[in-house]
Amino acid sequence: MKELLEKLRTCSSVEEKISFLDAYPPVRSFLQSNPFAFQKFSKEKEFACKQLIAIGQWERLVGDEKLSKDAIDLLLDKMVALDVFYQELGGILGYQEKVLRFLKGGDDARNKEILTLHPPSFVDISEITDKVRSSILEGIKALPLIAEMYPLGGAADRLHLVDEKTGSDLPAAKLQYAGRTLFEGLIRDLAAREYVYFKLFGSQVQTPVAIMTSAEKGNHSHVLKIADEMGWFGRPKELFRIFMQPLVPAVDEEGNWCLLGLGVPLLKPGGHGALWKLARDEGVFDWLHALKRKKTLVRQLNNPIASLDYGLLAFSGIGVEQKMVFGFASCPRVIQSAEGVNVVVEKKNGEVALTNIEYCDFAKYGIEDRPQEIGGSYSQFSSNTNILFADLDAIEKAVKICPFPGLLVNMKQASYTTLEGEKKSSVMARLESTMQNIADVFVDSAKDLQGAKKGPRHTFVTYNHRHKTIATAKKAFVL
To answer: What letter does residue 120 receive in the DSSP assignment?
Structure first.
């Protein structure tokens, strides 16, 4: 498959790619039995379908039965979206090749280039000092320059959130917290910071908000409905940009696509790492530049306490004041918790990066989940909280270098409902991308830094009390 993928990369048009695939044995064999199969489809759908044949999933999807043209059209619409989104990876073929490589324990380029890992040097904002007060003020002053981005497209399967009337699954955006949805809570937090700016400087600032949703559990329509019912939270509708990430195929341990039914693959969100590429592809960065925004704060939906006290203001103030390109908000991490960690990576080529390692990859990167102090409950590495600061110009450049940051495949038990309404559970995975690992692009030379442990000069990580930084809603509590 890798050789086929490399040859397709040399093709300059979709017609040329189709012609090349036509000579590939599985596709050639299919065409001999079905010479007129693609007469009524667009070139993009034909190419998507022939890729499915080439990777051995078409017959699995449609079986021996003949699907209606409408059913095939619906399937191929989703496949074309998948192919377009992963074009830098090689489309559908590239997605499958990458999944199989991970499943087989193939070469991990990121892991191979690592020399050693260090705990990072923090900017401590856990206690009020003159320096922290200055950062808070800078964070308030900078509000007219800052946008906010919310990745709301996750599946949140572990919450088991359902509509009490219909029994249908609901996305995390609908979860009630303190009498309001988590989505509404994000906007109220933002409005509070804007009010502080108004009280200090006497003028109203209104922050543009970019939101990444998905089709999972009706996530996109639920987010739009909440916003509409709340009158867009008293804000101009034009200051919201809501864009939807494509869903990706879930696979079993052999890499075969999981199915909900005939012609319907089980599709899931491909991780929050889609945020950056989609923001570029959907013109969100251009929109923010037109609104004179230079930086962005990224918040995850399922962490409602992240805006408690002054943490976000000090965090963004440090980023703006010190002209940083990327930042993480961090706090103590309880050992054995399902949370990633912030680390300084020293590479074999002499480069240094401040980045994130997901908890499911600890063994791969040789991270021992042991306490900082003997007998203690907190890890030697701090928790990555998915509260991020980013310079928009720097992120746009980084996306060109790394459109799919932090790719990983995490096999785990998951439940789903077939088209016939049957509840099933099996071990499955999907190719996921992590938004934090765009930081891998922002490197410095260890030689120039005169000490790799401090990390690059233009990325940073703050350290705050855990109870003011993270309390994620991930799992349902059942009495």
So the answer is: P
